[in-house]
Structures are given as structure tokens and as C-alpha cells.
Amino acid sequence: MKPTVLILCTGNSCRSHMAEGILRAAAGDVLDVQSAGSKPAGYVHPLAIRALLEIGIDISGHRSKHLDEFLSSDVETVVTVCGNADQVCPMFPGQVNRHHWGFDDPAHAEGDEEEQMVVFRRVRDEIKRVFEAYAAGRKDSAAQAATV
């Protein structure tokens, strides 16, 4: 069974979904990647969907979920991507690792859609750098474990 990585933020509408999509694409079949929020917005932000489509990742089928959906799941690693989620994050059964990598919330970007997209792209690229590096490390670890 693949280890589950749960990415948390408050609203589960932007950052956690972008991180989920990027990590899922980068980790391949090494990890089961999920996301949730402490106060889910109930939707995935259309500009987050657009920002990921620009790099070939489709998250249009994602849905906003409450972290309570995962309280009985075997979650190996929890990654919080905003300060508020880090403060309210519970421990999950089987949880081994906890990381906090904070990113600006692009949902608060101002201006017209193109000005907002500049912020979404910047945050997407920051998330991409961090989560692709994390995925590379996890894939290396999995490959080493397979040869032992």
C-alpha cells in the first residue's frame, strides 16, 4: 500500500489543491496524495485550476474536503501549506511525519483576472519547486528500499 500524504490548508480551494496536483504528478505511483482543509471553501478556485492547466496538470475534478474525512485514515505524512492549518492540525492515525511549508494565499490576490493570475503563477511555481524536490526525495527513498 502506498503511503498517504495529506496536504492541508484552511480553505482547501487553492494552495493545497495546487500542491496535491503537483505532488501527485511528480511522485507518480510512489505516494497516495490527498488534500483537505480545516474550513473548506466548498470549491476549487478556478484560477488555481487554470494555473495548473498551464503546466499540464488537471485538477478540475478535485473537490474541497474537510480534514475530518481523513481522521480515520492511515495518513503517513501531513504537510500544512498555511499557518492557520498548521495551528489547528490534529494528529492522524499512523502519522509519522509532519511538515509545514507556508505559501502566500493567491485567493487574496487583487486586481483583474490577469493581475490575479500573476500571483497564482508565482505561488504555483513556489509550490512546484518545494513539492517536486520532496517527491524526488521520496522516490529516491522508495527506490533504495526496493533494492534492499
From TrEMBL:
The keyword Oxidoreductase applies. It is an enzyme of class 1 (oxidoreductase). Residues 3-137 form the Phosphotyrosine protein phosphatase I domain. The keyword Magnesium does not apply. InterPro entries: Ptyr_pPase, Ptyr_pPase_sf. It holds the Pfam family LMWPc. Keywords: Arsenical resistance, Oxidoreductase. Its EC number is 1.20.4.4. This is Arsenate reductase ArsC. It comes from Luteolibacter soli.
